[in-house]
Automatic annotation (TrEMBL):
It comes from Methanococcoides burtonii (strain DSM 6242 / NBRC 107633 / OCM 468 / ACE-M). This is Methanol-specific methylcobalamin:CoM methyltransferase. The gene is mtaA. Keywords: Metal-binding, Methanogenesis, Methyltransferase, Transferase, Zinc. CDD domains: Mta_CmuA_like. SUPFAM superfamilies: UROD/MetE-like. Pfam families: URO-D (PF01208). GO terms for biological process: methanogenesis; methylation; one-carbon metabolic process; porphyrin-containing compound biosynthetic process. One of its GO terms (molecular function) is metal ion binding. Its cofactor is Zn(2+). Residues 2-303 form the Uroporphyrinogen decarboxylase (URO-D) domain.
Amino acid sequence: MQASGTQWPEAHFNSEKMATLAIAGHEIAGLEGIRYPFDGTAIAQTLGCTMGEGTYDTQPSIHDFPFETIEDVKDLTVPENFLESERIKTILDATEIIKKRADEDIPIIAGHLGPAAITLSLVGVRNYLMWFISHPDTIKELITFSTDICIEYSNALLERGADVVCIPDSEAGPELIPPEFFETMIFPEYKRLNREIKGKTIAHICGDSADILEKVAISGFDGISIEEKVDVQYAKSAIGDKACLIGNVSPVHTLLGMKPEKVKEEAKQCIEDGVDILAPGCGLAPHTSLNNLKAFVAARDEYYLEKGLL
């Protein structure tokens, strides 16, 4: 952020600053893609959640949610002005700016929350967990509605210039709900999501997602991003050639907390173990050093040079 001259929280809410900071990850740190926005509250805020804007080194956060009781869940349709709402329009405008400013061969990766994450944002953690058991029909209705939101928003991002849509949906993972709930409630919507989005998609699930990887792999995503809790070799065997495996260098323990040499060591091991695309296991921590990011990028090149593949 310091090197780009643009910082949080302004870059969350201003399309020019968002584009500048996103491009800086490529131009300054050498990352091969341009990934934005930098938080996941835009959809939730647009649908009625209250939030705080965050600080220089903390992301915006949701403070309250609109559906506190079952009776609150009604008239679930995508708002007519959803794409024109302030937060969403800022990100769509940033997409167009990035498309104009970035080199054609650099992938533009737009992110937004997935169906389970949107649902949790709307009802809160307690209701989300309880209603899977006590009111499964309501949860199913909310997940279907949230999938509709994802489809409309993803297609708008792709139309504006994004090459890929990355969909973080950790709330679908087995660290929060049993795999059986994923299979009956969320898996069918993932398949619909990928049928109706007119471009490439990536699923990202934080935590240990091992128990659902096979299902995620056959739901139609082009890539699956895993964090460091998942063994790469197991993930590769579960996914096979159904999707690209992306990950999974620890963003906190390694990229934030280690020296460049250790960053390179872990990055090279990830490639050796079978990742198709080297990436952090989740979002970068704000105080991650530029030296570590450059070491992360260099590790990929060094690995392939050492193997005689470059």
